[in-house]
Amino acid sequence: MRSKQNDIFVNGTLLEKTFSINNALKRLVRCLFAEGLLDPSRLIFTSDQVCYPLKQGQLFFEHLQIAPADTFIHYGQIIWRDNRGQKNNITDHNKLIDLIKDEPDFRYTTEGIEGLKADITNSINNDIRARQYRQKWNATLSQKITLSGETTFTGYLRHHMSPSDAAILLDQWGSLEGHPYYPTWKCRSNLSPESVELLSPEFDAIVPVRIAALRADMAYIETMPDKKNYQGWFAEQFPVLWQEWKQQLNHKKYDEKEWLPLPVHSWHLTACVQQHYADDIASGILILEGPDLQTRPSMSFRTMRPLTPENAPFIKLPVAIWMTSEMRSLQAKSIHMGPRISQLIKEILHNEDGFNQSVSILEEQIAFHYRHKERQDDAEGKYLSVVFRQAYSAPKCYENCLPITVATLLTSLPQNNNP
Question: The whole model's pTM is what?
Fold first, then answer.
């Protein structure tokens, strides 16, 4: 399902292309050292650059800095000098990967190397598009801040949006940079460029989630102790949606007590579920018709925040998309352990009085996945599962604070380049 396209094809500005390509090189260098594919002990430091010897020559890093967690970040050029003394600048990730691919002491496949190159290229293309969109988004936000009479971004959010709406805006807006340790930080290689924009948080996306129905005896359910009745809990959290879902089932002559409301990501519904679970749909175990819930994808792409009701829980979903070098399923271990770990932490916080009321968590209150009552195979549900996570909350002494995702703190403000 990966793209094999290795050419950078976006018609962006030269500045955006240059930044994104250099960004990919910087991430790749950091990852190569962090994962031990390049051995830091072999680095030779001189006054103005750092040399790394290879079998066929030497790599020279300008402005290579030592960073936390045994990583290295470079801010200058990378120069390759072969054993004949010829020099070349390394200007993209493909050249760097080709030079170092024979250095690790383990086997790899040509397909794996080409897949890595393609994933990084896909990340670069998506990064360029996101930065193009960011210019327009920042301009819109700057205009809103000015018209509101506020002087700061956070001031505008505090006084003109609800805390939960402000928090999800900051979460989406702060998703521009991606994970700093991943060289494939924005890889979504089985999505078209148009789908990336429609589904991704860095494009301010709103994504529908279908509320399907899974027969209740075909699911494994894990809950926190005070959330045993999933259907009743769902009806309390989504009262209007519950009535729509119930009415559609009743119209088909089904009793809603025998079914579970199952959120399914709209892309995942058509790209995976319809084909992967065709037999279950045909046998009447799974009903895909149902109401849609409008949501905003959070920074993780597949954890969705409903637009309504105001304090509705986050919904974490599987999406059969190759992202950051991994297919994003939602496996049984996440279903089984999420509410259990939340309960354990809740008990610790209760016993410790929240560590002076300074710590709180977003509990994973309910989770379930498809598990056939006869086959009892947990693996079958990795693409048909859900985790419900508590909406934004804060300790009582911080009720007036603004929730800000940590990565957002490192994102440049709409009005200037300050973080």
Answer: 0.91
